[in-house]
Amino acid sequence: MMDKFLVTRLIGDKSIVLPASKGYGDVEIRPGRYDFPSETLLLGQSCEAFEEKIGLDLAQRITVITEAENPFEADEIAEVKFEQVLDCVDRWTYGQAQTPLRSAGFIKNLVTDWESPRLPAQSFGPSPIFAIFNRDIENIDEPQALFTFPDSELKLAVFRSNHWLRRARLETVLQLRCLFRWFALETLAKVEEENITGKLMQAVGFPYGRVGIFLPRETLNRIKDHTNYEYGRRYFESKFDEMRDYRNNIVHSGFRQWDISQDKLYEYEQVLTITVPRLQGYAITGLYHGIQSTKELWEYFPVIFSENKNITTDLHGNILYQIGQQGIDLNEHKRVNFNM
């Protein structure tokens, strides 16, 4: 017999902090101030059991109601849903926060009034239960909208891209961070066995190939009217080609992290950090336009590109300006602190 379970987990306290609840499909993320007293108690017990030191005041709750035969099955179903939502929400934070799903949480059986903290070794125990009421949801944002689009190959590709980007942000090994970010690009850019450098150049803002046909001549001239345009174009093109070769060397020849210099890897990471969210933004715009597949996305990409009113501002004010001022550099991320 199927019961309805409310499954709630904690997101790390260095993650997003929402002022109110937000719904993502059937999943909700909410701040801790909406906890019932018993729920706060359950979360505290679960944190203690898993030995997770989390600030309950800041840590967001992610929750879903799911049908299952038992709490263990409900917990497994909920975790899949949670990870998919966090993959999408993490991209929305622009790398300024981390969204790891913590082990701590609780579960409620909405049919039998049973509840328990989430414990190691599948240790669920009986506890009191309180009523649940509906809450107002704020205006829909991009991650929420993503869950309202009809299922399609492109929507699945966006989910996969979000997953690899979030994996990259949580990864501590530099080589894997670069590789995961490249996967985030490939899942949206690679339709067949092809060189995706041209597509990535377009995602950054360079009017490559058919893109230029759909742009007015004055727009093209304005995009190219920058001191560092040609240097930036050559730089990004060469780095994308290098990264494609390096990705192949890792996958096919088992290259290790020390088979390439750390400086190169940091440089690749910065270029990928610039590129991934921009390509994902174009893919989500495609979903708004009703595009169903990655192949169709690239057929209509020149039109989507031409509709972007911020192309020149972004390329000049962010990317080319950074190259002109200091180059692509992540030296500050390589430094460590010592007590002197």
Reconstruct the topology from this structure.
Elements: E1 3-11, E2 22-24, E3 27-30, H1 37-50, E4 61-68, H2 71-92, E5 101-109, E6 114-117, H3 142-146, H4 153-170, H5 174-189, H6 197-204, H7 217-224, H8 229-253, H9 262-288, H10 294-299, H11 301-307, H12 311-325, H13 331-334
Question: What would your notes on this structure say?
Answer:
With 340 residues, the protein is of the alpha+beta class. It has two domains: 3-140, no CATH class; 149-334, no CATH class. 51% of the residues lie in helices and 11% in strands. The protein contains 13 helices and six strands. The chain has helices at 37-50, 71-92, 142-146, 153-170, 174-189, 197-204, 217-224, 229-253, 262-288, 294-299, 301-307, 311-325, 331-334; strands at 3-11, 22-24, 27-30, 61-68, 101-109, 114-117. Strands 2-3-4-1-5-6 form a six-stranded antiparallel β-sheet. The radius of gyration is 23 Å and the shape is elongated. Mean pLDDT is 83; it is low at 122-135 and 329-340.
Note the gap between the termini. 64 Å
- Structural class based on helices, strands and sheet pairing: alpha+beta
For the secondary structure, the number of strands is 6
The secondary-structure element order is EEEHEHEEHHHHHHHHHHH
